[in-house]
Amino acid sequence: MLKLSVSFTALSVLLPFVSAQSATWGQCGGVGWSGATTCTSGNTCVSYSQYYSQCVPSSQVTTSVSSASSATSSSASSSASSPASTSTVKLHTLAKSKGKLYFGTATDNPELTDTAYDAILDDGAMFGQITPGNSMKWDATEPTQGTFTWTGADQIVDLAQANGQILRGHNCVWYNQLPSWVTSTTWTAATLTSAIQTHCGTLVGHYKGQIYSWDVINEPFNDDGTWRSDVFYNTLGTTYVQIALEAARAADPDAKLYINDYNIEGPGAKATAMLNLVQTLKAASVPIDGIGFQSHFIVGELPSGIQTNFEAFTAQGVEIAITELDIRMTLPSTPALLAQQKKDYTTIISACQAVTGCVGVTVWDWTDKYSWVPSTFSGQGAACPWDENFIRKPAYDGIAIGFGN
Ligand code: G3I
């Protein structure tokens, strides 16, 4: 049974004198919304929060109560054809109340034209932190050597600041999404060092004082714990890490400097390699403040020992964060898969909750509508806590439970 909060506006489908109506899955209300507040035939306007109401097919919503005095306090019991969230908490507010710095999400510029998406993204009680999914990457910010473009990144920084959301910067040095001039130049150690210093220094410096933490280095290791072969490692060996971190520190002394990777959430060769790198950098007084655990998981396949592994990192004097969380499944989703996904979200969130040095959690976009998963893993998806129609899934409740709600 799906529990939905149905607003007073649900009744308005019965009212005459309707001038314009929203179609299925369109927005039909919320703070700041100036469009239609009724739905086309066959749909019901459902309020998810004071910020967002949506036209849901009436066949998926069976309202038994609707006598509210306001959209925010109305309540109703409803049913739908697939399981959904029943939690009423906002996730950033909850995370803060449990001692974390933030609960946040990645977003990307093309999505921002979707006003229904924006209505939820802009809710600072839901998302207290934003990571640009693509627009701070090297190909976006320095497409030609020495020429920087900030348009996309600035749009997201401005949006986050308008919403009172803190920012994670992503990223300075990564083997992927590099402009061709980086990958095709014949570098010497000196010229590549200079290029890294210019890129990281200019990027981090442009946002000085505005970014909580930077993924200065992204994905340096292979899954077996060996160093990834890329233009940086092949030219400079492991020293590129120090070069980038020091350039970032000089550009913004107050930003937390992170190394970010996947498949390091549980103990194993890759986690050990990262732990050894932290120890080596610390011993050499290279600036390193945090490790990001991307946490791109598969339903039912989370590693064991996550909390113990997290504690091994914080014991080295770095903070940690879950930076790109999603938990994908083979499609189509089923109630059983969604129930397991809920448990898996609880598992990873509760590991962060249990470790004081785990400062926050970022999902790699909050809705399946804009998840990176289907285009990368054919036949897989449904990885996010909200579905493609912006309806909260059981995973949402799993997150709340993980934070101890
Ligand atoms: O910018 C081009 C655009 O010009 C072109 O028209 C379009 C056609 O497909 O492609 C656009 O580039 C896409 C880019 O996102 C920007 O939208 C790439 O094809 C696409 O592959 C790229 O995907 C991104 C992926 O990183 C690249 O590896 C995802 O959106 C992004 O969510 C994902 O994020 C990464 C993190 O940075 C690091 N950790 C893993 C995570 C998931 O892969």
TrEMBL record:
It is an enzyme of class 3 (hydrolase). Residues 20-56 form the CBM1 domain. SUPFAM superfamilies: (Trans)glycosidases, Cellulose-binding domain. GO terms for cellular component: extracellular region. GO terms for molecular function: cellulose binding; endo-1,4-beta-xylanase activity. InterPro entries: CBD, CBD_sf, GH, GH10, GH10_AS, GH10_dom. GO terms for biological process: xylan catabolic process. Keywords: Carbohydrate metabolism, Glycosidase, Hydrolase, Polysaccharide degradation, Secreted, Signal, Xylan degradation. Its EC number is 3.2.1.8. SMART domains: fCBD, Glyco_10. Residues 85-402 form the GH10 domain. It catalyses: Endohydrolysis of (1->4)-beta-D-xylosidic linkages in xylans. Pathway: Glycan degradation; xylan degradation. Residues 1-20 form the signal peptide. The active site is at residue 324. Pfam families: CBM_1, Glyco_hydro_10. Its main location: secreted. Belongs to the glycosyl hydrolase 10 (cellulase F) family. PANTHER family: ENDO-1,4-BETA-XYLANASE (PTHR31490:SF35), GLYCOSYL HYDROLASE (PTHR31490). This is Beta-xylanase. It comes from Phlebiopsis gigantea (strain 11061_1 CR5-6) (White-rot fungus).
